[in-house]
User: Which sequence fits this backbone?
């Protein structure tokens, strides 16, 4: 009788253990087949806005430089706001002064003589640093390349405030001075320096469109 009791006890314990293992296995299987809760995919972040603006500016600068090199007046004049005009510092034989113009023509006496260089613009990568200077003894630039100056343009303010103006009877109205200073404030100075030419200009975004604000042809002329 005792043996029968012990046999039943062992059998009950064994079956109970098997059931527990079976339930554990089922639970594990349930955990495996339940799909993992995934987070939704995040949209790709847009490029940095400043980087986009930088690339946009560089693209417009290349268009302007190419138009000067190919003497494409139509393209250049698309960058001139007739209501604003632009300021030009001529080159040789002039006092450091400027004229106001509302279009670019390569027949114009102030523009026709200038050398814009013959290097392909494809070789240039814009460099954001102070522009080069021209050495009138060696007739060479301190460095060559395409430079975009991050500092504010001040040469036109210097011309307006030049103490020699009184001597040469040169004067500017308050409105002219205010306009010049505003144009300087919003413009980026671009300086392309090559062995056989240069292009120096100011460019700004005005009313959603890039415009040429200044041209400076005096940088490589030593008699100015």
Assistant:
């Amino acid at each position: 009788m005792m043996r029968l009791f012990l046999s039943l006890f062992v059998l009950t314990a064994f079956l109970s253990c098997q059931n527990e293992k079976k339930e554990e296995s089922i639970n594990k299987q349930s955990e495996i087949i339940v799909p993992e809760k995934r987070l939704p995919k995040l949209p790709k972040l847009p490029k940095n806005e400043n980087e986009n603006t930088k690339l946009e500016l560089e693209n417009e600068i290349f268009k302007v430089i190419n138009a000067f090199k190919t003497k494409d007046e139509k393209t250049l004049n698309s960058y001139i706001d007739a209501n604003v005009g632009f300021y030009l510092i001529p080159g040789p034989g002039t006092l450091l002064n400027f004229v106001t113009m509302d279009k670019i023509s390569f027949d114009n006496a102030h523009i026709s003589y200038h050398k814009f260089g013959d290097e392909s613009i494809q070789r240039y990568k814009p460099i954001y640093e102070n522009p080069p200077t021209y050495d009138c003894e060696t007739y060479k630039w301190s460095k060559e390349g395409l430079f975009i100056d991050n500092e504010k343009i001040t040469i036109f303010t210097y011309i307006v405030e030049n103490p020699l103006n009184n001597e040469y009877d040169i004067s500017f109205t308050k409105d002219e001075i205010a306009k010049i200073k505003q144009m300087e404030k919003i413009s980026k100075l671009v300086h392309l320096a090559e062995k056989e030419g240069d292009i120096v200009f100011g460019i700004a975004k005005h009313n959603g469109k890039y415009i040429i604000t200044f041209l400076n042809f005096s940088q490589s002329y030593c008699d100015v």
